[in-house]
Specification:
single chain; 456 residues; alpha+beta; Immunoglobulin-like; five-stranded antiparallel beta sheet; four-stranded antiparallel beta sheet; 19% strand
Length: 456
């Protein structure tokens, strides 16, 4: 009987939980095999890209800038606004269809190879932890000064990453300028940086692998995104069982290739036993493959007892790469991507949007003419300052306080027009007027504005 006042679960509930419900801290053993080395190069490339990407530009614009305050989102040098709903919907569809396709083919390869949680945990924060605490961490015998060094280094890295994170939203030069000034001069940015740094520190110092096993919904979606032909990290039970070490006088044929060394368990960053089959907590990182391959090499047995394979191939059947979902997803992805590229390529250098008015829609003047106030917003999508001229048909009277409208690159401005037409022109209280916008370079747009007037 356990001395714990809590009831113990009859079986393991979570790989990060002890039977009495307390937290089981994981200190995975490092297995430097072929997949670990490949993942390391991928991780280093992704970390470098994360740090460099905010500084890159294309066509005079940042390669990536998510300016939430001004509601301007720049991707691949192309600026989008929230009003471009169709393009944003198509972009989201491309992302989701891409996730569906990759998962149906390669399982949770994203989680183990490219997810920021895995990349930074396994190739930045854990190496720092191993350097600071040494091998005594798993035994809980770390001295106080080693822990202090570890947390200080964690804090420095987290603050740096939070500054880089903020640069994706305000630009790296702005972050650099803010860093040179007092926090009171940019209090919002200061709070964002330190709030983000605190969350990163909490995640990588305390929450750790629980982000994958408890918080992230992707593992729970794999039951519908995967099928038996998807690539997973699998245990070849037909070759490995019955597991056990060969004893003196025992025939080799009486046991499988698995010697029950449990290295695949102690090296797993989420603490699962891959021999129990496909599990939600598996992030397909391949650490258990490297650990098992090293044991097989020592025993002069073939590698692949644990390997990347499909459930079908592990059961002896061939993997079917061409199946309904792997054919439908690419077709949909190509179709939606073509629509997105066409929409982006067909975008004009400016956008005119008719804005609603909260005041009286029209005024009937004493000479039986009707005056409508028209308000439009003009977005300059170019990297140059442009002058936008507003013109109307010669038979329509208009008062335009500011014409042309000068707009700085990437900025927008609101233009007001007082359009005056005879009352007799209105049919059922409506009259359409064509308003022309031009910058004299490459933008010409006609807005068919519906003017409101009296019904009789």
């Amino acid at each position: 009987m356990s001395d714990s006042p809590f009831l113990e679960a009859p079986e393991e509930v979570l790989s990060t939980m002890n039977p009495d419900g307390s937290r089981k801290w994981l200190f995975p053993r490092l297995s430097k095999g072929r997949f670990w080395r490949r993942r390391r190069w991928v991780a280093y490339a992704l970390m470098l890209l994360f740090n460099v990407l905010p500084w890159l530009s294309m066509g005079g614009r940042p390669l990536v800038l998510l300016d939430v305050v001004h509601r301007e989102f720049t991707l691949a040098g192309v600026m989008f606004r929230p009003t471009e709903t169709l393009l944003l919907v198509l972009l989201l569809l491309v992302i989701f269809l891409g996730v569906f396709l990759v998962t149906s083919l390669f399982g949770r390869g994203w989680c183990g190879w490219a997810c920021p949680q895995t990349v930074y945990m396994e190739y930045l924060y854990r190496p720092i932890e191993r350097l600071a605490e040494g091998k005594s961490a798993a035994r809980g015998q770390v001295s106080l000064w080693r822990r202090v060094i570890k947390y200080v280094l964690f804090g420095i890295v987290s603050v740096h990453l939070s500054h880089i994170f903020l640069s994706y939203f305000v630009g790296p030069t702005t972050v650099l300028s803010w860093s040179m000034n007092l926090p009171t001069e940019h209090l919002a940015g200061f709070l964002i940086v330190w709030g983000t740094a605190a969350m990163m520190f909490l995640d990588f110092a305390w929450f750790r692998e629980q982000m994958c096993t408890l918080a992230c919904p992707y593992g729970r979606f794999q039951s519908v995104l995967l099928d038996r032909n998807s690539l997973i990290v699998g245990y070849d039970e037909s070759r490995a069982e019955p597991r056990g070490r060969l004893r003196k006088g025992q025939e080799a044929a009486s046991t499988g290739d698995c010697v029950d060394c449990s290295l695949c368990v102690v090296t797993c960053p989420t603490g699962i036993d891959i021999r129990d089959g496909l599990q939600m907590e598996c992030i397909a990182c391949g650490e258990c493959i490297d650990a098992c391959d090293a044991v097989m090499d020592k025993l002069d047995r073939p590698r692949g007892l644990i390997r990347y394979a499909s459930q079908e191939s592990l059961s002896g059947a061939p993997t079917k790469w061409l199946r309904p979902r792997t054919m439908i997803y690419p077709v949909l992805l190509i179709f939606v991507l073509a629509l997105l590229l066409r929409g982006v390529a067909g975008r004009q250098s400016a956008m005119v949007q008719d804005l609603r008015l909260s005041d009286s829609p029209f005024i009937v003047m004493g000479d039986q003419r009707v005056r409508n106030l028209v308000r439009v917003r003009i977005d300059n999508r170019t990297i140059d300052e442009r002058d936008y001229t507003i013109s109307l048909p010669i038979n329509v009277e208009a008062i335009i306080p500011l014409n042309p409208v000068t707009i700085a690159p990437g900025e927008s401005a609101t233009a007001f027009l007082h359009v005056i037409v005879p009352r007799a022109n209105f049919k059922s209280g409506r009259h359409v007027v064509a308003i022309q916008f031009s910058d004299g370079v490459d933008f010409d747009f006609t807005l068919d504005k519906v003017l409101l007037g009296p019904l009789h």
